[in-house]
Amino acid sequence: MKIAICLALLLLTVMVVPAFGQFIYSNGPINGTTDGWTINFGFVVSDTFPITAPGTTVTGLEFGAWLFPGDVLLNAQVSITSSEFGGTTYFNGVVNFTQSACSGNQYGYNVCAETGSFNGPSLASGTYWVDLQNAVVNDGDPIFWDENSGPSSASENSVGTVPSEAFSILGSCSDGQSGPGCGPPSVPEPGSIFLLASGMLGLAAIFRSKIGL
């Protein structure tokens, strides 16, 4: 009986979001309890992702977001570039996102999975940066990209190098495979799984580039 109750509680602490397109890279699951970085009000966050199979086409993005209760992300500017915040631009556009799997964390924010699809570029093998900025929330509040300290390198335009964020790149692989970077097939970590924290603390300052817990 106790085992069944524990399993039920464990299931309640995770959320899984279906992807638009095929998994080609994940920077790990949503953390939801550590920190986040602002992606509107002039702040930009950029994370790396690898491509190993030439001709891989990017078709979508999933990422973890922290929002004030009741807020909904409408869209955000997504770009794919050769370096942080710039260099050669392979894609740059406003992407609409679908919000799901929201749950409150110990700081009073809703942590949600955000999924958007777009007609992205066909990329050669290499390392690229995905940049998020100019996010639009239904009532104009700030929104924060969840920090999960995954394997990617990351940078924020006001402070420089930061721990990386929770996201997955979606697309189609020219070699017909579905592993990271379109390499050998593997089972990806769901980009929208996170553990819920307990307790409620005061909300952080609104217009800071980092939540600053």
Number of domains: 1
Extract low-pLDDT stretches: 1-19, 185-207
CATH architecture: Sandwich
Termini gap? 38 Å
Provide the CATH topology.
Jelly Rolls
Question: Treating each run of at least 4 consecutive H or I residues as one helix, how many helices?
Answer: 1
Label the structural class.
mainly beta
Characterize the overall form.
Answer: globular
Assembly level: single chain
Q: What string, H for helix and E for strand, traces the elements in order? A: HEEEEEEEEEEEEEE
The first-level CATH class is given as Mainly Beta
- Give the beta-strand count: 14
Percent of residues in helices comes to under 10%
- What Rg do the Cα atoms give? 17 Å
Question: Can you walk me through this structure?
Answer:
The protein has one domain (2-182): Sandwich (Jelly Rolls), CATH 2.60.120. The protein is built from one helix and 14 strands, in the order αββββββββββββββ. It has one helix at residues 2-12, and strands at 22-26, 35-38, 45-51, 56-67, 73-83, 86-96, 98-104, 110-117, 122-123, 126-137, 144-147, 154-156, 160-161, 167-172. Strand 5 and strand 6 form a beta hairpin. The termini are far apart. The model is unreliable at 1-19 and 185-207 (pLDDT under 50).
Give the tags.
six-stranded antiparallel β-sheet; eight-stranded antiparallel β-sheet; single chain; mainly beta; globular; Jelly Rolls; disordered N terminus; 213 residues
Quick recap:
This protein is mainly beta and 213 residues long. It has one helix at residues 2-12, and strands spanning 22-26, 35-38, 45-51, 56-67, 73-83, 86-96, 98-104, 110-117, 122-123, 126-137, 144-147, 154-156, 160-161, 167-172.
